[in-house]
Write a structure and sequence with these properties.
heterodimer, A: mainly beta, 6-stranded mixed beta sheet, B: mainly beta, 7-stranded mixed beta sheet, 4-stranded antiparallel beta sheet, 0% helix, globular
């Protein structure tokens, strides 16, 4: 199936620092979604992106739909301890007859108070 | 409450046991999914049901048997599992085709340990 390469795989940062993570693919995507999974819970949708170049914010989170439609970025500003978790990108590829989301491998974020 | 409820939250079972995982949603969705999440591995799609018909079966071993009796309920029947089947099993639901404003809604998962 389609592959989404998400990086970095993990990050250990100091509280207050900004965070950046990204997802890339060799295929073109129609939609990019970013999810967060808190420890012991299921993923929850954070941000959805629908157009190339689109920049969308949700509080301290900002995500962008890459202009080539093959990548997406998520930034977290001024991190706090509750930002800890696994962040997943997901996308809907063009020509996806099954309309099934493809998920990245996740970025595990750890925040040191 | 996420809208998708999974029970039990934790399950420990022996390799000869038979157990079932349950997933329930009342979001009006008509597609439901089982994912397996192992440590340090990506989410693995196992099964997809759309309008109560199985539309995806990703080469999952026959010791995992899904059942979707109606659009609100999804089960995963387990028998003669192996220790490597220990993982977090996530259920998700969505409209089909997915409403891209919302993607999939996930449950909190069942943490399965096979001993």
């Amino acid at each position: 199936g389609q592959q989404l390469n998400q990086s970095p795989q993990s990050m250990f940062i100091q509280e207050g620092e900004d965070v950046s993570m990204n997802c890339t693919s060799s295929s073109i995507f129609n939609t990019w979604l970013w999810y967060k999974q808190d420890p012991g819970e299921g993923p929850v949708l954070l941000i959805a992106l629908y157009k190339a170049g689109e920049l969308t914010s949700n509080g301290r989170l900002t995500a962008q739909f890459g202009i080539t439609r093959k990548d997406s970025f998520l930034n977290i500003s001024a991190s706090i301890p509750s930002d800890v978790g696994i962040y997943f990108c997901a996308g809907l590829p063009v020509n996806n007859a099954g309309n099934m989301l493809t998920f990245g491998g996740g970025t595990r974020l750890m925040v040191k108070p | 409450e996420t809208g998708v409820t999974q029970t039990p939250r934790h399950l420990v079972m022996g390799m000869t046991n038979k157990k079932s995982l349950k997933c329930e949603q009342h979001l009006g969705h008509n597609a439901m999914y089982w994912y397996k999440q192992s440590a340090k591995k990506p989410l693995e799609l196992m099964f997809v049901y759309s309008l109560e018909e199985r539309v995806e079966n990703n080469s999952v071993p026959s010791r995992f048997s899904p059942e979707c009796p109606n659009s609100s309920h999804l089960f995963l029947h387990l028998h003669t599992l192996q220790p490597e089947d220990s993982a977090l099993y996530l259920c998700a639901s969505s409209l089909y085709p997915p409403d891209l404003n919302y993607g999939y809604t996930f449950g909190s998962g069942t943490r399965l340990t096979v001993v």
